Amino acid sequence: MDLTIETIQNEKEHQVTLCGDIDAFTGMKVKETLMSLVNQPDTALITVNLEAVEYMDSTGIGIFIAVMKACKQSACTLEVTKLSPRVERLFRITGLYEHIAIRKGESE
Fold it and tell me: Where do the domains of the chain lie?
């Protein structure tokens, strides 16, 4: 399946909505998009909506770890919202759920 990426910018905040699968075929597109936002001057917050992500493999986990580390170096915050049940399970199994900022009110 393909992946669509929608990005909305509000001053220092970027809202990214991903729809589809995050895997070896689509991962580079996700990583390039998120890293380009991290590297923009004055980026304070990147919020990624994962509600419509139906499948994510280890490629996706690696991407979120890399972006999370880059955000820490750039003094911006990475948050994920609206995790689909499959993605939430993957985040929990891998331990990423404990290390990444998840908007609790929107993750269910």
Answer: 3-106
Q: Which residues contact 57 (CB under 8 A, 6 or more apart)?
A: 22, 23, 24
Contact criterion met (CB below 8 Å) for 17 and 49: yes
- For the stretch 69-103, pLDDT in tens is 999 999 999 999 999 888 999 999 999 999 999 98
Strand ranges for 2-82 from DSSP E = 3-10, 13-22, 45-56, 77-81
| Residue appearing with tokens 């917050």 | 45
Spatial separation of the C-alpha atoms in residues 42 and 38, rounded to whole Å? 9
- Residue (of 68, 90, 71) closest to 22 by Cα position: 90
Are 52 and 84 in contact by the 8 Å Cβ rule? The answer is yes
3-106 fold: Transcription Regulator spoIIAA (3.30.750)
**Cβ-contact 15, 37 below 8 angstroms:** no
For 89, the token pair is 């399970």
